[in-house]
């Protein structure tokens, strides 16, 4: 047993890339900032008196920056800041993130609009840092793919690292989030949360990245030409092998959300205290980590179609089990509310993570060279846009059914109707053809390499001409003197 562990550690050490460290720090910072989630929910519910539907709508508006992730990816791919494509952006938006939490602790509870504006700023900053971290993630996966025969393993490993570390950060924050509300105010918790992006900024100064020579930023270089990046992205995205799976992912993520109404049900009907809600969040994060480990160790070689169909059906039945809770059948059967919620949460989050992981790995494998951040950000924004629409769909269904903080009589019907959306994408899962997607990506990679070689030749020629001109000028100045 110890020999096996030693061999695994030796293999990890040999394949370790220093970029993993900054990827892990970005992921951990993003996950641990969920420390303030309960405080935000209670602020909107108690301080501003929002209904479940309006809370869901307002929170979905603050997540708008996650929908336009390709724009942030395009910036970091094509426009180096202070000589760096990744490092400078992490530092800049990490500072904005920390300032946003500090401002929320000082002025967030003054008015609803100021709170929403600051939450929007925080989401924007977190989103941009996330885009840069995922860009580094895809770059490392692409480097590993050139050294490995099985790119599926490399993609699974890198995605598992990022989302596993993020879940670990969420796990730590969830452990303390509920308990802290008993001892600290919401404003004090917002101030504590500002420490995590501040730590990210500090660590980022030590991230080693190759500095871009300003003289080398020739527009013939595809990475520095924004319009060329857009053209490359659009050419790649027009491929039916790409846009059809993207459409499938979008439809799957668009299932109406029940998170806000369940928060109200837990607090008002079941009388759960913040400490127990923190325990539920802890269970969510623990189940997420377990799901990542299960997928990476046992399911990463399972074809996408097989695992997606199986986990989607399982997730549907786990989601429908909430009907037992909202109709209070569990009480009739002698099952304690807290016990039922903990068990149901484990299954729902575990299966949900196993359902999402193949999508994230597929997204990582689809990204072509030179537009890694843009393409991966577009795929993630598809997921986020679908989730945002899901929140709005959920709010609309709540309004139509008349379910609110004063009437939960039709909540069971809401769960039945929204559950149908989970199964709707299954008939079209055949549009995902993994082998053909990889062949298309490899073909695009070869074409890009040829164009990069041509670009490097032109850039080298231009640099030589600039050197010759500078030498002639210096010689003329010496003759004049």
TrEMBL record:
* GO molecular function per UniProt: folic acid transmembrane transporter activity
Give compartment(s): Membrane
- CDD domains with a match to the protein in the record: MFS_FBT
| Top-level taxon in the UniProt lineage | Eukaryota
**UniProt region (Disordered), positions on chain:** 443-481
Output one GO BP term.
folate transmembrane transport
Compositionally biased intervals (Basic and acidic residues): 443-454
TM spans, by residue? Answer: 20-36, 48-68, 89-107, 113-138, 159-183, 189-208, 246-266, 278-295, 307-326, 346-364, 376-399, 411-431
Pfam families the UniProt entry points to: BT1
- What membrane topology does this protein have? Multi-pass membrane protein
Biased region (Polar residues) positions are: 470-481
State where it is primarily located.
Answer: membrane
InterPro entries in the record: BT1, FBT, MFS_trans_sf
Give GO cellular component annotations, separated by semicolons: membrane
Q: Which UniProt keywords apply?
A: Membrane, Transmembrane, Transmembrane helix, Transport
Report the sequence similarity comment from the record: Belongs to the major facilitator superfamily. Folate-biopterin transporter (TC 2.A.71) family.
The protein's name in its UniProt record: Folate/biopterin transporter family protein
């Amino acid at each position: 047993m110890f020999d096996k562990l030693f061999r695994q550690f030796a293999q990890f050490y040999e394949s370790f890339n220093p970029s993993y460290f900054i990827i892990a720090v970005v992921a951990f910072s993003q996950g641990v900032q969920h420390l303030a989630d309960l405080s935000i929910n209670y602020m909107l519910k108690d301080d501003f008196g929002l209904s479940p539907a309006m809370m869901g709508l307002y929170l979905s508006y603050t997540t708008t920056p996650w929908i336009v992730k390709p724009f942030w990816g395009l910036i970091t791919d094509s426009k180096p800041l202070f000589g760096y494509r990744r490092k400078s952006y992490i530092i800049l938006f990490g500072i904005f993130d920390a300032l946003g939490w500090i401002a929320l602790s000082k002025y967030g509870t003054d008015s609803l609009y100021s709170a929403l504006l600051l939450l929007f700023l925080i989401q924007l900053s977190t989103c941009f840092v996330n885009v840069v971290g995922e860009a580094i993630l895809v770059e490392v996966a692409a480097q590993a793919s050139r050294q490995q025969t099985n790119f599926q393993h490399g993609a699974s490993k890198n995605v598992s690292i990022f989302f596993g570390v993020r879940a670990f950060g969420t796990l730590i924050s969830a452990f303390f989030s509920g308990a802290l509300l008993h001892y600290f105010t919401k404003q004090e918790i917002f101030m504590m949360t500002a420490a995590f992006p501040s730590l990210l900024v500090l660590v980022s100064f030590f991230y080693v990245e190759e500095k871009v020579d300003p003289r080398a930023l020739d527009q013939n270089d595809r990475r520095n030409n924004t319009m060329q990046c857009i053209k490359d992205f659009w050419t790649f995205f027009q491929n039916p092998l790409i846009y059809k799976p993207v459409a499938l992912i979008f439809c799957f993520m668009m299932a109406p959300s029940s998170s806000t109404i369940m928060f109200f049900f837990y607090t008002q009907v079941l009388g759960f205290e913040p400490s127990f809600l923190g325990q539920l969040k802890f269970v969510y994060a623990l189940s997420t980590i377990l799901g990542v480990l299960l997928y990476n160790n046992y399911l990463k070689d399972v074809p996408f179609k097989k695992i997606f169909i199986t986990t989607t059906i399982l997730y549907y039945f786990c989601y429908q089990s909430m009907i037992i809770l909202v109709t209070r059948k569990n009480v009739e059967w002698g099952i304690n509310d807290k016990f039922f919620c903990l068990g149901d949460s484990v299954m729902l989050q575990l299966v949900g993570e196993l359902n999402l992981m193949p999508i994230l790995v597929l997204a990582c494998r689809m990204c072509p060279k030179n537009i890694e951040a843009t393409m991966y950000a577009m795929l993630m924004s598809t997921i986020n846009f679908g989730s945002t629409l899901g929140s709005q769909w959920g709010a609309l269904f709540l309004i139509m059914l008349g379910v609110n903080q004063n009437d939960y009589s039709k909540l069971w019907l809401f769960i039945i109707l929204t559950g149908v959306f989970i199964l709707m994408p299954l008939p079209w899962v055949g549009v995902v053809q993994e082998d053909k997607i990889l062949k298309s990506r490899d073909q695009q990679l070869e074409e890009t390499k040829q164009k990069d070689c041509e670009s490097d030749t032109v850039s080298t020629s231009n640099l030589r001409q600039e050197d010759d001109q500078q030498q002639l000028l210096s010689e003329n100045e010496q003759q004049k003197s």
